[in-house]
Amino acid sequence: MKKCFFLLLLLSIAANAQTHRFIYEYQFKSDSLAKEFRKENMVLDINPTEVKFYPYFQAENDSINKIRNYSNSSWDDEVPTLKRERNTNRNINYVLFNDFFAVKTSDEMVWILTPDTKKVGSYNLQKATTKFGGRKWTAWFNTEVNSNEGPYKFRGLPGLIFEVADDKNNFKFSLLKSYQLKDTYDTSGFMESFAGKKPIMVDEKTLNKKRLELFNDPLYEFKEKFKNDDGSTNFSVMGVKIKSLDQFKELTVKLQDKLRQDYNPIELDKAVHYPIK
Q1: Where are the alpha helices (DSSP H) in the chain?
Q2: What is the rounded CA–CA span in Å between residue 242 and residue 234?
Q3: What is the DSSP string of 124-174?
């Protein structure tokens, strides 16, 4: 948080800036029983008409692609990627598993402001709470920063959200730093498309159905490639070299176990209910 000392200065002198970029550290547990957090730096771009939230490594990869004329694509299905219109709760969520999807959601939050305050560095933060996605959240925001935005879908407070975490200690976003970009940052090459493919627009019910289909037969595409191979390709799954179709049954069960274990969605009320053995 000590890296935030340029934040107010940037917002006060950058009235003509096209993009205000905020970097948050995202700590999360893929397995709710895990003791250690996984950490990923995330980008919150506040543009003139849109707000975008995505992992920082995508911006890094995009920069390398442009400099070296590469076309590498990168994605991490454990971290969120989304955008919304400014001053709204209407989000478009981008999701990649067996295909590339986009889902529109309306994510309004009702905040309860409290008199509790704390100081982080030179910033006075105020506490607010909300219930969202089947979880209880606590946010700390700063009223001196003229923005009602925050990480992920969290927004609507009278100031920028510096921190937000759930009460079960599974997820936490913490502001690290901010800076300005002179032009609106173009994400069309890595956010609104993946490997040149535009997303398939689906609703949440359809997306969960497709997740369940993938769980029921997670190695389907791999099996089809194995069946049609002429023997010239080496196949391996989870470190196991595939020599016959019979191996897929046991590997499918192991992969399903792993999918169950590593499934801790940030919005718990939208979780897919995988079959229990």
Answers
A1: 7-13, 56-68, 204-216, 220-228, 247-261
A2: 8
A3: EEEEEEEEETTEEEEEEEETTS-----STT---SSSEEEEEEETTSSEEEE
User: CB neighbours of 71 closer than 8 A, spacing ≥ 6?
Assistant: 65, 195, 196
Task: Decide if 266 contacts 171 (C-beta within 8 A).
Answer: yes
Q: pLDDT tens digits for 223-251?
A: 999 989 888 888 898 889 999 999 999 99
What single letter denotes the amino acid at residue 128? A
Q: Burial level of 184, CB count in 10 A (0-12/13-18/19+)?
A: middle
Six token digits for residue 224? 């089809």
H/E stretch holding 53 reads: strand 50-55
User: Six-digit token pair at 68?
Assistant: 């070296």
| CA distance linking residue 265 with residue 93, whole number of Å | 14
Q: Which helix (H) or strand (E) holds 43?
A: strand 38-46
Distance CA 53, CA 47 (A): 11
Q: Read off the amino acid at residue 104.
A: K
Distance CA 63, CA 10 (A): 23
Distances (CA, A) of 54 to 75, 98, 102, 167, 211: 10, 20, 14, 23, 21
Decide: pTM greater than 0.85. Answer: yes
